[in-house]
Amino acid sequence: MYWVDVLDQVLIFGILAMSLNLLLGYAGQVSVATAAFAAIGGYLSGYLASKHGFPTGWGIVLGILAGSLIGMLVSLPALLLSNEFVILLTLSVQTIILVIVTSVAALGGELGLVDLPSLHVTKDLVRPTDWLVPLIVLTAVVYGICAWIGESPFGRILRGIREDQLATQSLGKDVWLKKVVVFGVTSGIAALGGSLIVFYNGIASPGLFDFNVSILIVAMVVLGGRGNLLGSLLGAAIVTAAGPFFEKVIKLSPEKASLARLLAFGLLLIVVLLLRPQGLLDENWRPMKLVRRLRRPARATEEPASEEASAEEFAGEVATLYGVRHREEAQALVSVKNVSKSFGGIRAVDGLSFDLLEGRITGLIGPNGAGKTTVFNLLTGTLPLDAGTVLLRGQDITGWPIDRVARHGMVRSFQDVRLFPRLSLLDNVKMAVPGQRGEKLTDLLFTPWRVFRDAPRTERLARRQLEFVGLSEKAEVLAGDLPFGEQKLVALARILASEAEVLLLDEPASGIDAAWVDRMIDIITRLRDHGLTVCIVEHNLQVVERMADHIYFMEAGRISADGTMQDLVEDERLVEVYFGQP
Amino acid sequence: MTLIATFLGIDSFREVSQAIVTGVINGAAYALLGISFALILGVTTRFHFAAAFTYTMCAYIAALIVNGTGIPLLPAAVIGVVCSIVIAVAIEGTVYQPLARGRSESLLPVFVASLGIVIAGENLIRLIWGNNTRVLGGFPQHTYSVGNVNFTSLDITLVAITVAITVSLTLLLDRTVLGQQIRAVRGNREMALAVGVNVRRIYLLVFAIATLIAGVAALFDGMKFAVTPDMGNQPIFYGFVVAFVAGVTRSPVRVALVGVLIGVVERLSTLWLSESTSALTVFGLLFLFLTMTSAPAGIRQLSGALSREPRVGAPGRARGHA
Amino acid sequence: MASLEPLPSQGPLLSIESLSAGYHRRPVVFDVTFDVAPGEIVAVLGHNGAGKTTTLKAAFGLIKPLRGQVRYQGQDITGTSCARHVRLGMSYTPSERFVFPDLTVAANLRLGALMEASRGERNRRLDQVHELFPLLKERESQLAGTFSGGEQRILSVGIALMSNPRLMFFDEPSLGVSPAITQQILSALRHMADEDGRGIVLLEQNVGYALREADRVYVMRSGRIILEESAEEMRGRTHWWDLF
Fold it and tell me: Which of these, C98, C69, C45, lies nearest to C208 by C-alpha position?
């Protein structure tokens, strides 16, 4: 009986921890308000049941809705805040809600609502044994939902937000709505957990939902493993089961056991953070991997060896996918007119105009500080411009945010690569694939079969890109573990997977070995032959000479010359500007 | 005057002036906490939540010594402060520094580790010394009345010490070489390394100074109210609020003034709200403050997301050029 | 200029051998070897991402080298702390954020001489920095953050000089600065090398600028040194396009 009670509590806290894991572990938003959202659910359903005779089941549903709604409202200010401020914001939410439930007379004040009716699910749930089966089922359902969300394209975007929000947006993914949605889901499930706590204990009191409880749940998630839902259950189990351990095994009194378990938990948390910062269960670890390894110990690899696609074959494939064709008469696919941007008093870009011709590789060179990367930032919406217009395929995209520009067909890479370090190479590339089913919560909830059917397509496309840059054997390796040169290649694969027709490459050749430079040049020139439009910013002039059909020379925020490499090299004034006055 | 008062639902002018005075006194404590956090957060960027533990330990140890031995208040207080400093420096050296080493994104591990310390610490205290509320006595208590406003000798001392600490810290930062080094690390850590500042040692020193200041606040808290195992949580919240609102790289004077202001605002709110909901004012205002600074841009981003056009190209279909 | 004691031994001031360095245990700089003699201005050229700054940071102790050795006056100092490097007589001026913005100019300079205990010596150095750059005396109580970019650069050279270093590292001192000021700085560097025998390592993308006063150059690309020659030879090349 005693152990059933312990198990019940493990399951309830497991539900709370799993909900927070979506927000904290997957999306990287640090919230210390979980207990407050639980309080919303618990108090609402408890109040309705005890004071108004509301059926307990429906009360719980209302609690979930209320929790979700308030969670989404709270997320609005959090959208643009850095994590220190999100902590502060959720701290204030936690305090405010607790103060409200403690001081509103109708909610019972300090003592809370007592004598609540039992939760009724086919029968009244009174004893811990009554609760066991329903809780197991419920935990499994919540796990299922959270895992479905977490492992879906939506969940992948959450992790992208956590790792590098800007890079995620640059691939065409909207992040703002996602944050609001995940706050809503987390707080809704937390509200469910709160209702369970309240009906399980038979009372709704402030002490059940105070700040200490919130941080305990944060600790469970971090200890168990951020991004690993089973880890959250494990974390909940460790915290909850530690009490009985101290009581039965070390023979402390129940009060002391309760204190001792928290003491041990706090210390364990610190030790785990120091020794194994990702938590006990790594986010990419799944029990299936263990099973797979046990089943087939002798096999060296799992997939059949794939042939490296010839560059030509691949380029052809990709081109068909993108729908680009080579045109003899090149038109301006991207048109930049009179664009300006100032930082403080400095004009970084000053009335700049140029065109990117369709199916051509255009180079942008110039001395350091000339403003080349700023131009990319302005074109793609990474930075807002002060004046001028940018046209993409005739459409005025001036002022569009970066994800919208990407969806419209123009994507940029970053000088400092910006891969998602704790995601595998495959996940990095998958992030870029457009039109995935399962990026919206509505897809996941209402048409799950479509999401299921679409997943292999994304996988196939992503693997193909990795194959082409020669990194398919490392598909499961975490991007953060790769050397810089290989990261650049993955970044190229990622940007190609976005199916954008215009690629802006920011120093694609810097930092990689000569052999890989050759391969990269090969890939891109063939894609150009099939109609892709590329602009590169590069300092390595040999690379520019080999690749570019047309080159613009930029100095002090303006374009001062253009032509082939030969033309520019012969201009003495340009030499002086580029290399400095001797 | 009385018309305005009745309109606002206030009994008398006396009530308001009492609230302001009490607010200033509370605000003095908030000022100390704010200064303490601003220093740590500004210089080391650590989200040092574990200060709740060192805060409690300071008052606790002082109380244990005063109640358990014959040692008078002042030496006991000093011992309490010294112990809390030792604990804080140990935390920075053995937990935070190893966690932050070589990691660019260290906010979460350090924050969660400090949560772990708070959880472990509070329960350790309860385990060893029980849940009892203790009293930190021994301070000569007199009550004064100036024109119907009451305050105690303890209160005046707190305010005086707060002023003294604020001034001393300002002088330390502006006039001494050590202070310049601290400000150097705060302003440009790499450059500080480049001129040979021992940044790790500065971090430890900053923790020591900040814990000293918070410890003083803890002692007065214990003397005025009570010493309990969880007395540190609420004050630490206030400390963070004051530090963030004032700005962590600002002068101690500014942080202190913000602390006093928050104390006064909170106290004034009790004229309308009950005592227990006064915290609501502070956190409600904080919430509004954070919302107002980020919501307009956030909503703009969101509306952009909601009104976005449909994706160009459905799955698998090649895009041609129109 | 502040006097430097005569060197105990002959040989290079700084000698770096087969250095590999990077971040998070991943190298971005491979097998770099170079040296600097007293009174020499050595320019390390190369574009963004070539590895110049990483090499400098590894030499100065801001990051730990993964492989190779750094010797100062014959003494092995590989992997020792920045503070030790400063005490031995080295200075480092980064390419960005090279002053303490919320301190006054005077406070900035004083911090440069942090390691010097004697007040008299500090004042002497201060006087000499003022002589070289009168601007720093005129505006000594102004907050460094309110200086223009070029003025901050001048201040950064002043800060470096305050430690009376034998070996000075400068990361892109010409970046974002007007030609007049860059020339002023360059002349000061030449003066420091000639008159006081200081060794100066100059990291630059602006080849022409560096070549004006450098004695020797190294060219880096993709984390390696691809060329080493005298400045004379470098200046004599018809074009530099294929080096970059």
Answer: C45
Nearest CA in chain C to B103: C24
- Has residue C64 got a pLDDT over 60? yes
Q: Which of C238, C243, C242 is nearest to C228 (CA)?
A: C243
* CATH number of the domain residue A350 falls in: 3.40.50.300
In one-letter notation, the amino acid at residue B173 is L
A510/C47 CB distance under 8 A: yes
As beta bridge partners, residue C200 has: C41, C168
C23, C25, C26, best to mutate vs chain A, most A CBs in 10 Å = C26
Q: Which CATH superfamily is domain C14-100+164-236 in?
A: P-loop containing nucleotide triphosphate hydrolases (3.40.50.300)
Chain A's closest residue to B100, CA to CA, is A274
Distance from CA of B283 to the nearest CA of A (A): 5
What's the rounded Cα separation, in Å, for the pair A121 and A535? 63
- Write out the residue range of the structural domain in which residue A205 sits: 2-211
Confidence band (pLDDT; 50, 70, 90) for B314? very low
Could you tell me how many CB contacts below 8 A there are between chain B and chain C? 64
Residues A344-361 pLDDT 10s: 778 889 899 999 999 899
Q: Which CATH fold would you assign to the domain B16-272?
A: ABC transporter involved in vitamin B12 uptake, BtuC (1.10.3470)
Q: Quick one: pLDDT band at residue B5, thresholds 50, 70, 90? A: low
- Eight-class DSSP state of A115: S
Q: From C99, which residue of chain B is nearest by alpha-carbon distance?
A: B191
The Cα diameter of chain B in Å comes to: 92
C26:A581 CB<8 A = no
- The residue in chain C having the minimum alpha-carbon distance to the alpha carbon of residue A539 is C47
ipTM for the assembly: 0.91
Q: Check CB contact under 8 Å for A77 and B319.
A: no
- Please choose, from the candidates C46, C23, C8, the residue with its C-alpha nearest in 3D space to the C-alpha of residue C217: C46
What SS3 state is found at A356? strand
List chain C residues with CB under 8 Å of A542: 242
Residues linked to residue A119 through DSSP beta bridges, in sequence order: A125
* pLDDT on residue A194: 96
Q: Tell me the residues of chain A between 394 and 433 that have a Cβ less than 8 Å away from chain C.
A: 415
